[in-house]
Amino acid sequence: MPVTIEQLREIIAKAEITEKAPAVFDPAIPLRQQGIDSLDMATFVFFIETELDLSIPHKEYKRLTTLDEIATALTENRAEWASKK
Fold it and tell me: Is 43 exposed, middle or buried (0-12, 13-18, 19+ CB in 10 A)?
């Protein structure tokens, strides 16, 4: 099942990393250019992993810069990144 931009926006809201409404984030613009700093991004990734029960490899973090890229990467790698419990 694909990860949607709307799901990611809901996770942004849960992570409380910004006072901006999640709907204002442009999916094609890097999150850093929209006010999300590296600490916010780390928190966002933690919430993504928790909400979707995934473990995103650290080597992937640098390529996850926009909501579009994050949604695509999560959709394409969901089975591989699924938490093994």
Answer: middle
- Gyration radius of the chain over CA positions: 12
- For residues 81 and 54, the answer to whether their CB atoms sit within 8 Å is yes
Contacts of 1 (CB under 8 A, 6+ apart): 78
Q: How confident is the model at residue 84 (pLDDT cuts 50, 70, 90)?
A: low
Q: Rounded to the nearest 5 degrees, what angle is found at the Cα of 56, between the Cα atoms of 50 and 9?
A: 55
Structure tokens at 50: 């928790």
Q: How far apart are the C-alpha atoms of 9 and 6, rounded to whole Å? A: 5
- Cβ atoms within 10 Å of 81's Cβ, excluding its own: 19
User: pLDDT digit string (tens) for 16-74?
Assistant: 999 999 999 999 999 999 999 999 999 999 999 999 999 999 999 888 999 999 999 99
